[in-house]
Design brief:
This protein is α+β, with helices and mostly antiparallel strands. It has seven helices and twelve strands. The structure holds zinc ion (ZN).
Length: 221
């Protein structure tokens, strides 16, 4: 069950009072509409009932997909890369660990939901994305500041990158064999993290570390 509470806020535009719903936890398996309102931007938006002013809310929330066994801890601008607690440490079930990720921005929250719902491995995807990023920057002679998973089919995987300067979009694709190879690297070099019961960040910084180790030491850890 999703957990929420009502909070009174003052509109930054007209100073009128509004009551908004804040969620501390979202469980899409018991409420499909919650998942949709995360993906279509509705959940974190509010409209002032007095003047119509629209704002984006940003606060920590736990997205817990029980059926697909992944949890996303959305903590805006969080700088920690691992979050653990005693409850997590005591969880000694024999099942493969639930995938637990820290995400620090809204687009990444949505991206991770789509990746996990597609049955893809986010570690392999981050490695593929990094390889594609390097290729894209070379190809156009630009810097790209972020890339998001766009699609995959039997042959290819696509990532959309944004030019850091012009914000122009570039959709780039890699063959599925790049993803498969990344999966092998993630399975070997990310083994400890795959077994971790803590919340961890799996992002470009993570991929850079793994790729560095791979190029330097191969599969030794
Ligand atoms: Zn207002």
């Amino acid at each position: 069950m999703s957990i929420s509470n009502l909070k009174a806020v003052e509109c930054p535009h007209c100073l009128g009072n509004n009551k908004i719903i804040l969620y501390s936890s979202i469980t899409p398996s018991s409420d499909e509409s919650m998942r949709n309102s995360v993906l279509n931007d509705k959940l974190f938006k509010y409209n002032c009932i007095h003047c119509g002013y629209e704002a984006r809310l940003s606060y920590p929330v736990l997205y817990n997909d029980v059926n697909r066994r992944f949890m996303l801890y959305f903590i805006p601008d969080c700088e920690r890369r691992v979050i653990t607690d005693r409850v997590i440490e005591l969880d000694r079930t024999r099942l493969a660990p639930i995938k637990k990720r820290i995400v620090t921005d809204y687009n990444t929250l949505k991206e991770k939901i789509i990746i996990f719902e597609s049955g893809l491995d986010d570690m392999a995807l981050e490695l593929t994305k990094l390889a594609l990023k390097i290729k894209t920057e070379k190809k156009y002679g630009i810097d790209v500041d972020c890339g998001y998973f766009s699609f995959y089919d039997r042959r290819r995987i696509g990532v959309t990158f944004f030019d850091a300067e012009t914000k122009e979009k570039h959709l780039e694709t890699a063959g599925m064999q790049v993803y498969q190879k990344s999966l092998g690297i993630a399975a070997r070099l990310g083994r400890k993290q795959r077994m971790s019961r803590a919340f961890i960040s799996v992002d470009e910084v993570w991929a850079q570390e793994i790729l560095y180790r791979y190029h330097r030491y191969g599969f030794e850890d």
